[in-house]
Amino acid sequence: MENKIESTDIQQNKTNNSEGDFSVQELKLLNLIAEIIVNISIRESYEKGN
Questions:
Q1: CA-CA distance, 2 to 21, in Å (whole number)?
Q2: What's the CA gap between 38 and 13, in Å, rounded?
Q3: What sign does the CA torsion over 1, 13, 30, 17 have?
Q4: In 3D, which of 5, 30, 4 has the Cα closest to residue 17?
Q5: What is the pTM of this model?
Q6: What tens digit of pLDDT does each residue of 29-46 get?
Q7: Where do the structural domains in the chain lie, given as residue ranges?
Q8: What is the distance between the alpha carbons of residues 20 and 14, in angstroms, rounded to a whole number?
Q9: Looking at the DSSP assignment, which residues form a beta bridge with residue 20?
Q10: What are phi and psi of 34, to 5 degrees?
């Protein structure tokens, strides 16, 4: 029963995008991945500067 509720929540949270439909959860995951990549890049730049 929980899976059905979760599936319904995901369907209700769909956002239209020119490349396809992404749920809010998918967008949050993509944002988190991007943030991690940026943080790693900043850390590497800082370490090279020292």
A1: 23
A2: 27
A3: positive
A4: 30
A5: 0.54
A6: 999 999 999 999 999 999
A7: 2-49
A8: 10
A9: 17
A10: -60, -40
SS (H, E, C) the chain: CHHHHHHHHHHHCEEEECCEEEEHHHHHHHHHHHHHHHHHHHHHHHHHHC
Give the length of the chain.
Answer: 50
Encoded tokens for 43? 């850390």
CA atoms within 13 A of residue 44's CA, in its CB half-sphere: 6
Q: Provide the pLDDT for residue 23.
A: 93
- Residue 4's identity, in one-letter code, is K
| Joined tokens for residue 47 | 């370490």
